[in-house]
Every structure is written in C-alpha cells, then in structure tokens.
Fold TonB-dependent receptor.
Amino acid sequence: MNKTSLNLAVLAALPLFYSTVSVAETSSLDAIETIQVTGSRINRTDMETASPVTVISAELIAQSGYASVEEILSKQPVAAGMNLGATSNNGSGGSATVNLRGMGTNRTLVLLNGRRMVASGTGADSSVDLNTIPVAMIKSIEILKDGASAVYGSDAIAGVVNIITKQDFEGTKIAADVSETAQGDGTSGGVSILHGVEFAGGNLVIGAQFSERGKIIQADRDHVEPGCSSFIPEGTLGGKTPDGQGGFKKRQHCYDFTQDSYAQTPNELFSAFSSFTTELDADTRINADLMYTRRESNQQMAPQPANIDLLSAKLADKYSQLFADTDGNVAQELNYRRRMTDAGPRISEQVTDTYRFSLGITGELESDASWDVSVTYGRNDSEDKVQNSIHAGNMEKSIYANQDLWFSGDALSRDFLASQGTMYTETNKGGNEQFIMAAGLSGVTSFDLGYAVGIENRFESGFYTPDLITQAGESTAAQQDPTSGNYSVQSVYGEVSMPVNDQLSLEAATRFDNYSTFGTAVTWKVGATYRFNDEFMMRSVAATGFRAPNVAELYGGNSGSFDYLDDPWGNAPDAQILVNYTGDLNLQPEESESFTFGMVWEITDGLSSTLDYWSFDITDAISRLNVQNQMNNCFAGQQQACDSINITPAGDLSDMTSVLTNVGSQQTSGIDWNIGYRQDSYRITLDTTYLIEFKEDGINYEGTIDGNMGGYSKLKANFTVDYNLTDAVTLAYNAQYIQGMDGNNDGDKYTTDDVVYHNVSAAYEVNDQWRINGGVKNLLDTDPEYVPDGNDMNTIPSLYDVVGRTFYLSTSYRF
C-alpha cells in the first residue's frame, strides 16, 4: 500500500479506527494487495475514497463494555431520532435497530460482510434485528455516512452499516462478561467461544455465544414519576368508581402503571456461527458463512386496560338509574373501564429463530481482474405471545351475568376470570425470508482505471398472523389484521474509479433495479478526491437513492396502536389514544438526493482531522402524517387536517386512522467533524455531529425533542482518551455529549438540559493469552431528561440512559 502521510492521516482521523489499525502498525499492511471498503465494490489498493466511513473495532467494543450491536451504534453521534433497543418496552417485540441521521430505521441498510442481512423480528419486518448478530463474531463495524443506493440498491438512503466478522482465525478464544447496575438489578452476562483451525487446505472458524440480559422495573428508578391512568383496578362505570356500598362516587385516584413495566427488558440470546475459507486452486477462493441465532425475550407492561361499552338496558336498574339525568333518562351506553390487575401484568414473550447462509466463490483472471459469484439465504421465524390478555366479548358477557361482582370494586380471582373465558394467552406468528444470487467482475485496467460490474437477483417475503381473537377485534387490545406478501428484484450495476492525475481522482457508479411491485428505478453516484499535498485532501460525493416499499408497507392490514397523544378537545379520557395504521398496495418508492463535501488533513505529526458537510433530500417519502400535528391543525379549523386522519372538527377520535402515503418529504443537513491526536502512550479522539436542519413534511425538528419523533439534538459528540499506563495496562475515558432540545407539550413549551455521560474503563493484559477488562458506564449516574410527552418513562429511552450507573467486567483467554 502507498503509505504517504495523508494515508496515515486518513487512518488516524477515522474515529475509533485506531483500535484496529494504528499508524504505528501500518507496516503490517504491506502484505495486503487489495482491500474492499464499504461503499464500493471495487477492490482498491488504498483507502482514499470520497465517502466518509467510520470504523469501530472489536477491541473498542470490548473496552467500552458494549453487550449488543444496537448499544454500539446508538451511542454514535451519527445516530438520532428513535430506535428500538434494550429499554424499548412498549411494542418493540424485543428487536433492536439502528437509525442513522434520524432518517428512520428502514432507511439504513445493514450488511454482513458486504451482503444483505435478512429482515428479522416478529414477522413482516422492515429492518434487521441487530440482536441476531452476536458481538463475539464481530471483527469491526463500518458505518458509511452517505447514500449508497447506486452501489447496494434500496434502503441505503441514510447510510450503510457493514458488520465484518472474524475470519482466518487460528487457535481458541474463550470470553465471558458480566454487568450490573449500581442499584443491584439488571444483572447481565454472557460467555462465548471461538475456535479456528486449518481444515481441508483452508481455515475453519466456528463459534458460539450465549448472553442473558436482566430486567429492571420502571418504578425502581427515582427519575420515573408514578404513572396516572384512569383505568383503575376497582373499575369505573360512567366515569365513576364503586363506593363500596353498592353505589358509585367520583373517581379521585389513578393507577400507577410504572410498578409493573420494564425499564430494561430481559432476553436470552444463543448464537452459533461458522466460516470456512479455502483456495480451490491458485486463482480461486471459496468462502462459506453460516449463522444461527435464537432470541427469547420479554417485555412487561401494566395489566390490560379493559374498555367496554355496556348497554344500559342490560344493566340492573340499581346501577343504570344511578346515572340518570334530572329527567330520569339514562344514556343508551355506559362506559366501563377496569385495569385488569386481577389477571396480572401483560407479559409479552418472543421466540425468534434466524438463519443465514452465504456461499461465495472468487477468482482471478489472467488480466488481474477478479470475479465473484455468491448465494445468500436468510430466514427468520417467530412466535410471540402476550399472557394475561383480555377477551372483550367474554368480559362483556360476564359483566352482564355477574354485575354485583364486577361493580363491587372488589378484586376478582384468576380462577373466576378463567372460568368466564375473560383471560387468555394471545399467540401470534410471523417470519421473513430472503434469497439472493449475485455475480460481479472487478479489476484495474492498464491505465489505472478501477471498475466493477455485476448482476443481482433478490427475493423477499414476509408474513405476520395475529391471534384469531385479535383479528376478530374481540381483544381489549387494538384490532389487527394479518400481513402476508412478497416481491422480487433484478439488478444490474456498474462502478468506475480513475486517477486523472497525481492530485485528482474521480469515481462514479450507477444501478438499475426492476421490482415486481412498482417497476424500475435508476440511481447514480459521482465522487472526487483532490490531493493538494501529502497532508491535505478534499473529497465530495453527489448521489441519488431510493427505498422500495417493503412487505409490511405494501401488504399490511389495519393495525391498531394506543399512542400517547394530547387531545386538544379534551374528549379523550386517557393519554393513550387508539390510532389505526394501514398500508397501501399502490405505494411507490421513495427518492432521495445526497451530497457530501469535506476534507482530510494531517495538521501536524500525530494530529489529524476530517470535516464533512452532508445533506439529504427525500421526496415521495413513505410515511405517516404526524398524528399529533394533524389533530392540532384540525382543532384550529383546518378541515383537510381532519380528513387526513379521519377525525371530525368536533374531536370525534373513534376512527382515527393513519395511512401510509408517498406525500411525505424529509430534508436534513449537518456537519461531521472528527479530530484525533496520538502519541506513543496515549490517543485522543473527538467525534462530533452538528445538525443544521431536519425537516419532515414541512415541520422543523432540528433542536427539538418529541415523544413520537425522538430527539434531534443540534450537537452530539463523543470524546475519548486512551492512555497506556504500562505495556500491560490501558486506561480509557469517554464522554458522550447531547445538547439540550426544545419541546412542546400541548402548548406548554419546555427545554431539556445538556447531558454528558461519563464512562471509564481499564484493560489489563495479564500475558499474551489472558486479558481482563472492566469499567463503569454513566459514572456519575446521570438521570435522563424529563420529556412530558415522552414515549415511555416521561423521556426518550432510545436517546437517554434510563438505567443509570452500570459496572461491567469481562475477560478473555486465547490459546
């Protein structure tokens, strides 16, 4: 490799990359002839590309105590908005996702060794469940921070996360880790084994990992205020609660749902993986990867809130007449509400099995060009259950038949509820499947023109089948229809890179995709790098992109969700309001344009920096209108806003519906600044993202925080210091900074404070084989910021730490 000062500056400036390849270690790269960088299919002889890439090493993952891929990615300044993770209790299905730039989890493409991962979760999913990728098998994670549809196709609008696994490994490595919060809960841990051996003329790597994450109850954290729900265990009729003497009185208390809800959700993960690489002959190489992950996860929420409209004519006069007006008239229906603590908390359980197999063959031609063919198959099967669900129809029948019992305000036994058919276990099934065949040709011509061409055929399918009671609308939870569908896509792509002279290099790519659902799409990318001297280089990329509608968006039936919303009319008796979500078979793909412009500069010996401006513009976005915003506009008298979500100007929210459409838009821009300084005994890095603009559907979100949209902090940064105390001991300090944001809760404006999370760690190499690592996350036990309209615990759990100070310890032994 050409190791000029600028090459070394690129390596040094890539945040977190130093743990994998330091400047002092670059001499070991001499043996490498070509490498492939995320964002290009051309095997290059250097790392100078126009696209900004962040690389996170396995060493840094272990040092920081990260237990999952989601935790690693969510801490990066490039992440924003909302994603699913360990602290997502309501509706997560146990999945974990990544959200680059806050542009949506389905606009970030996840690759494994440069090839697509199957969508995974609880069925007909639009994104990859990062839980399916065991940390033990990771060599590094590469984050491409610009659009890459011209290279990889759909979904790569916001960027690409490419997870590189350990291959060509020899020996045996055993590792174990454990963590626990300062309050003595949330105990988590895992063990893994990795073994590599020469086999059949090649290298065989096999491994397995088991991990378990402990639970934390929301009410066990001081920052979580007691909840207040109008659904109370005694039940209410017509808004009044039993007085214990056969009558009813005004409700004067509410139910604290935080006593039963998880702040950290438990799960168990088992993964087995294998990689085999060998040379068939001097010019041909074969590689096979196999991975299997089983996830058993749980979420727990407060007991089911049952909401039944009872016919007054079927009620005994001693009850119905209590609600008569001055003329003795009783409303045709009386609303009965009850928090079903008698049945117990809602316990969601998921069991998912994810399989992935990839086989690739690469070869060299006499012209020094290389070819490759590959087959990738992925499948995800799931079964999720919700214990202590309530059958609304049977509950209504039981109330009519046992009015004195239901209206007494006394507790009901589980045996009674079971005998009435009131409680049951909801069982849903789902899955995803993916099959890809691809072939490509890459090389460099005699006049130094790099090129890559290829074809690809991909098939995707998914389904989700809710419990029959849920489908029939007989559950007290929201009604939901089944989802099932598939599509196929055939693609052709081409890419070139060319040095114009010693200073200027150009690159370009284009891709043609033909979808069975909507037709064709063409995308392109052009980029350039200009080297002023050995210390300073500038780079820029302009690209178009697209995102095809997925199975859930095309074929998804009605799915109800009780969202936390503010009713401006004051008609809704509770903060959780039913919204019906539906898909659309006629959806068209989203289209995007992206642009990056930046520089790489070796300022002085050991001090390097990168600075990149980026912008994204999405049109025809597949999205749902902001329901809260449409409610507010309807209340203000805008009939179009009322019609858009199927509500009335008078505030009738009984059939509020949010339909997927292509009328959305999104524009965002910002600046990434990375600076690194290294000397023999210490390294310092600062990774910063400044958000200039984030606008969705004409609404500005930069510098704001919202329970449905998440947080769009103007400034996020990670500051890291590594210090080699001795040859065997390394100390590390990390600070994660999140600038405060503005919020609006039903007209009441508020501002969150700036937050800094301090993390410390130490690593001790006992000898060449044995390593011990330990540390503290959130050293100062900083509480999350209060967000009145937060999606859970009155905050944004995907943005702020809701768990608190956590201690961790890990060890590994290699022989």
